[in-house]
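Schema walk-through. Below, the input block comes first and the output block second. Nothing else is stored per chain. Lengths vary across the set, and this one has 527 residues.
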Amino acid sequence: MKIVITGIPGSGKTTVGKLLSRILKLKFIDMDEYIEQKTGLKINEIFLNYGELYFREMERKACKELSESEDCVISTGGKTLLYKENLNQFYSFIIITLLSTPETIIKRLDVEYKTRPLLFSNPAKSILKLYKERIPIYQKFPNKIETDDLNPEEVVEKILTNILNGKERKIKTETNHKNSLIVIKKGLSNNLSSYIHRIYKGSEIFILMDKIISNLYGKKILRNLKKNGLNPKVYVITSKEKIKNLNIAKRIYSWLMNERANRSSLFISIGGGVISDLGGFIASTYHRGIKLINIPTTLLSQIDASIGGKNGINFNKAKNQIGTIYFPEAILIDPLFLISLKKSYIKEGLVEALKTGIIGDQYLYNLIKNHYYELILKDLGYLEELIYRSIKVKLSIVEKDAYERNLRKLLNLGHTFAHAFESCLNYKISHGKAVGLGLICAFKLGVLLNMCSENYLEEIKKILKNAGLPTKIANLNASEIISFMQYDKKRKGEKISFIIPRKIGEVKIKTNISINHINECLREIIK
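--- output ---
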């Protein structure tokens, strides 16, 4: 586990960091001490002799070096992560933000002013000035804890109970007479064996695992399983959309047969949406169906791809042309997996959650609209709520229409466009970006059909822009996109259907949309 503690000067970063590292048995690094060791000078000497600009350059180098550290707790200077470059260096860390009021800070720093260069002259006035400058930025940081009325031990207790752990949230669902259990809990993967034992009493376990997850967590996961009497066979694979094909499926079938997997075996998929799509397809077809557990590790898979039973592989450049609907025994979700994700993958998941909020949850929509920055920086509380609400909306639809005869089509909001974009660009555009562009097209269609206000269209564009997601794209051919849409529906003997938003929380299915209207929607997003 890698943790970086930031926050207002005087909020207790160093004291809390030392105590937290002892409890978690992790190395502790104080960034100011690290810089002093590197330069051979005290921090106040660096400021006095070389100035703040020189110090900030030393700090920048320290951030780059320390970001490569293995499991540890790092406490930063008060201004360190206010620089975007430094903040980005620690993106794969759990960022914990400590806050205090100016009054509390003045009391705490009463005897420390001489060692703090930025507070040396007129300390109280300097603290108020720093506070006013920095607090608006820190309020957007993730995993915030107000420390005013807490001693260091109490702050650490809040970190342990509220940020790094939490209550187990269970969702029991029955779909097409199949009961499934969904568990959401931070740190769940540290005790995976106990969850497997609840679900499966046998010993024949086979795991399909994403290579990145294997490198990051594989040893720890397998150590826990073996320690508790489980000795699974593991197939590790590089996860890319293009591996969802018949040739790869054949290889995995052969592996299962060689390892003597049978109908009473358990198959576990650990990875993102590609792994759950492929793993679900394998589990549903091997011996006409074996027990399946999904352990999704990306935001997109935790809120969508692993939920609802859909799986599939691609064929002849078209996405998910061969597949089944097959419900797992359980879906085990650990939000801490998201800490290792790149920023682009978090953004992709936010788009899918945004879609879900538009379909059926105003609170979820507003959570993304108002807290996109904290979500992108992996605020674990907000992410957990986002995951839970997204799943609840999806299940409320899937439970009523498991096989997409009517109601489940609502979940395709933006996807008729998005799948065509992906196919047209040979999957060189990510699914999340494609869905974001598809949402713009869906709202544009709603405006053209007088079904929703143009204000919603502009708001969606603003949310996507704020999150750093594209609202325009080049190199798309409108006629080719329409051709992909028509092919996708012809194979099912259907007309092209579109999901149209009327307002946040209400969408409708429409068919017989004119080609002119579709072209106009595409002009909204094509550069």
